[in-house]
Amino acid sequence: MSKKKVMSILLTAGLALSVQGAYAQAPKNAPNSNAASAFDNKIIKKINADNMYNTIALLSEQPRAAGTDGELKGANYIKSQFEKYGYETELQPFKFYEAVRNNASGILEVGGQNLKPYVVSGSYSDEVTAEMIHVGKALAGTVPNTVKGKIALIERGDIAFVEKIQNVLEKGAVGVIFYNNSGTSNAFGQADYGQNIPVVSITRAQGLELAEQLKAGSKTAYLKVAGSGMEEKTSYNVIAKMKPHKNKDTGQVVMIGAHHDSVPGGPGANDDASGVSAVLELARVMANMPIDTELRFVTFGAEEKGLLGSYHYAGTLSDQEADRIVGHFQMDMIGSKDAGGDNKANGLIMYTIDGKKNLVTDLASAAGSRTALGESVPYGQLGRSDHQPFHELGIPAALFIHSPLEPWYHTPADTIDKIDKNKLQETAEIIGASVYQIARPDTPALEHSRVAPKPVDYDFENRPPGA
């Protein structure tokens, strides 16, 4: 999906920023050195952390797991807020499949002995009796044609479980037995929708024993899975657009995003009602500001299921539409008082997929020094959030998050009482100032290839959240 392109961007007219941010050569009649802060104030003085806190409190009243009534209720509330601020708004549904286990049970009998397997998440419920064949790790190009009509014995490792299953399924396998590559556990594995054969897992010791038996001759197995499968569900993206006046329209788009779903059973106050609260607050603040660049705010569904909402949205963009997007600012978990530890910049960090600086990180690091944070924002390399699909389209994108994460990440304890209004304010100011630097009509368009023309100086941090 990745493609190369050169995009036009808007940088501050005549403002030569310090080495902490983006740089543009000053033209004649340049504004004075206080111009950047003056423009920032048009946005940041309107940002209200109490508004964000109240949004988090409302959204975290119940879990918002993708495909549930809680998610739909949250998405409809977000949509109503965008509409109240005057945005062209869309609720974009998309289907996904979720593994279900209704008292799932599995039987694997070889030579009259039941190996008591684990039923892989999402396994198809069925029963088969067939010969086994050991196919190693079932890597692409290594699976023999003789797997047809047989149960494949597969070692864990190197590639995803669903890829291993698909590689043997395409050659006609009628079942799969995974065995572990270390330790003593048999509780692992994932099947995908449409992989309609039973799949179980056993321990490493059991797998190695079966492999040895197969060296001595053929072995027949009885494999049965019950109470397991896939269920179709619907999640939603909420999309809000504000287009500039036709007389002052660069044809470009700047995006601000967060994900509105939570983990099952979790209220998701920080993850990621906090990000949504800043998206809505910036949408409110910018609704009546003069712009010559389209503002596009999106909250994504099913992030916790594997970035499904952002990938769905990115997949709906034509090449021409993607070419118009000059940057994507993604906020995920920006409000926990217990995240960040003693790290610089109050724990706030910008992550890019490739670990390289880009337009988004350059502008935001500079904005950090000019706003409430009072210092440039470090950056590092990490995926695992909704900035990834935009990076793969060639769009400058970064994730804004506090690192290391709080102890109650992905637990029922992710509640409103853990939220720090100062952190919400700082992050919203940085994103708001950065986005308005692109969108305000006094800035000229400059040819740009995803990085500032002049190198910038801010720290690289190679650490994952929670580290």
What does this structure look like?
This protein has 11 helices and 16 strands. By secondary structure, it is α/β, with parallel strands linked by helices. Strands 2, 3, 4, 5, 6, 7, 8, 9, 10, 11, 12, 13, 14 and 15 form a 14-stranded mixed sheet that branches. Helix 2 (49-59) crosses helix 6 (269-286), helix 6 packs across helix 11 and helix 9 (359-370) crosses helix 11. The longest helix has 19 residues, at 421-439. It starts with 6 loop residues before the first strand and ends in a 19-residue tail after the last strand.
Give a brief outline of the structure.
The protein is an alpha/beta fold and 467 residues long.
Outline the fold blueprint.
Layout: E1 7-10, H1 35-44, H2 49-59, H3 69-84, E2 88-110, E3 113-114, E4 118-119, E5 126-134, E6 151-155, H4 161-169, E7 175-179, E8 199-202, H5 204-216, E9 220-242, E10 253-259, H6 269-286, E11 294-300, H7 308-315, H8 319-324, E12 325-331, E13 348-352, H9 359-370, E14 379-381, H10 388-392, E15 397-402, H11 421-439, E16 445-448
Parallel strand pairs: 5-6, 6-7, 7-8, 10-11, 10-12, 12-15, 13-14
Antiparallel strand pairs: 1-16, 2-3, 2-9, 4-8, 5-9, 9-11, 13-15
Helix pairs in contact: 1-11, 2-6, 2-11, 6-11, 9-11
